[in-house]
Write a structure and sequence with these properties.
This protein has 422 residues and is an alpha/beta fold. Helices cover 34% and strands 18% of the residues. The longest helix has 17 residues.
């Protein structure tokens, strides 16, 4: 069966580098980071990390949603808000943006041909809070929405109900590859004619309980200087900065986009995935799984690696992770004489974990539509193992024609997505 073409027609973003498409675009052009010191870390001598990338204009540290402060234009009804974790609020607002951006009417959102795939690790803070309260006062005095607001499927539960989604729905939880998987399987649904439209919604909290546990893995940078705390490809990179927020993309078939007279951001050409089968937390040192994911993405779309002129790398600013991805890119590109531009936008966004793929797909969509290629910030001394790569350190005012986005998660889950400029 001939595959249908798939386009991204709407984007919504709540993030440390901007709370809408315009703000994100400005930050990418200027390579302006979204990092700031998180007050609870400064007050706790046991918290060695200080920096996070958190959305501005949102105050969601309280465990009581009644205390939350967020931009007035969203006005979430109380009966909807009470089922949210903090990142649920971020994503709800991003979805409102994406629906408006795509020009969707209510009947376009709520019908059997429109579905949603979500990505989230759940809310560690609310799980901890709810379990602690249950032990202190008993289960009958716990919140009736405690489970649906906290566990990993919380985004699916709340968005399907809140927006009356009637099509396919599922929540993905494969760590840092989660929203990459969501995008890939949504592509398949539309390309195979199972759905006409899919929302991809991803989000993460940023608070003590969601961030500090990563210090036990030695995964986070302990730097207090934002420029040194997230510096992918730099010789002195030493970990990532956790990012919270939400990103939502609208994927539509070519026929549906044309019917509505939509102007797409980009075409999503297809994807590939693989598993390392190597280690529970660390990527294969030779990047073997990622090589297979990229190769599968190219094979399934008919794209030659030489056609790819930009790579948004997974590169999180860890010693092992960046090196592993570099080995994979060397095999797929450098060894064949190809030299695509490469950057890691995590240098300014931080690492959004399950949010990462969707946020970076949003970034690629914005960059391709607006005509620029985001640079890789904060590199002071390029690691010698990356000297052969075309890593761009400043944003260039020319759009990529074909872009690759890589994501790798715990257990060696790899996803590679291919985008084409419209």
């Amino acid at each position: 069966m001939e595959r249908k073409r798939v386009f991204i027609t709407g984007v919504g973003v709540i993030s440390g580098i901007g709370n809408d498409v315009r703000g994100v675009s400005e930050s990418l052009r200027d390579l302006k980071h979204g990092f700031s010191a998180y007050p609870p870390f400064l007050d706790d001598p046991l918290a060695p990390v200080t920096l996070v990338s958190a959305p501005k204009e949102f105050q969601v540290d309280s465990n009581d949603f009644e205390d939350w402060v967020y931009p007035e234009q969203y006005r979430v009804r109380r009966e909807v808000l009470r089922g949210f974790a903090p990142h649920g609020l971020y994503v709800y607002c991003a979805m409102k943006q994406a629906i408006e951006d795509a020009g969707l009417e209510e009947e376009d959102v709520s019908n059997v041909e429109t579905g949603i795939y979500t990505a989230s690790s759940g809310s560690t803070r609310l799980v901890y809070h709810n379990m602690s309260r249950m032990h202190e006062v008993g289960p009958m005095r716990c919140s009736p929405t405690g489970i649906v607001s906290a566990i990993s499927g919380t985004l699916s539960f709340n968005l399907v109900a809140g927006f009356r989604i009637q099509g396919n729905s599922c929540g993905f939880s494969s760590a840092c590859a989660s929203s990459g998987h969501a995008l890939g399987f949504a592509y398949d649904d539309i390309a195979m004619g199972r759905q006409k439209r899919m929302f991809i919604a991803a989000g993460e909290d940023v608070n003590y309980e969601s961030v500090v546990p990563f210090t036990g893995m030695r995964a986070l940078s302990l730097e207090t200087d934002p420029v040194r705390a997230s510096c992918p490809f730099d010789a002195k990179r030493n970990g990532f900065v956790c990012a919270g927020g939400g990103a939502v993309l609208v994927l539509e078939s070519e026929e549906e986009a044309m019917r509505r007279g939509s102007t797409p951001y980009v075409e999503l050409l297809g994807w590939g995935q693989s598993s390392d089968g190597h280690n529970v937390a660390i990527s294969h040192p030779e990047g073997l799984g990622l090589i297979r994911a990229i190769d599968k993405a190219c094979e399934s779309t008919g794209v030659d690696a030489g056609e790819i002129d930009y790579i948004n790398a997974h590169a999180t600013s860890t010693l092992i992770g960046d090196a592993s991805e570099g080995k994979a890119l060397d095999v797929v590109f450098n060894s064949k004489g190809y030299s695509p531009k490469i950057s890691s936008t995590k240098a300014i966004t931080g690492h959004g974990l399950s949010l990462a793929s969707a946020l970076e797909a949003s970034i690629i969509s914005i960059a391709m539509k607006e005509g620029f290629t985001p640079g890789s910030a904060h590199i002071q001394n390029l690691d010698s193992q990356f000297e052969a790569f075309n890593i761009i350190r400043k944003t260039e005012l020319v759009a990529p024609q074909v872009a690759l986005s890589n994501s790798s998660g715990f257990g060696g889950a790899n996803v590679s997505l291919l985008f084409k400029r419209v």
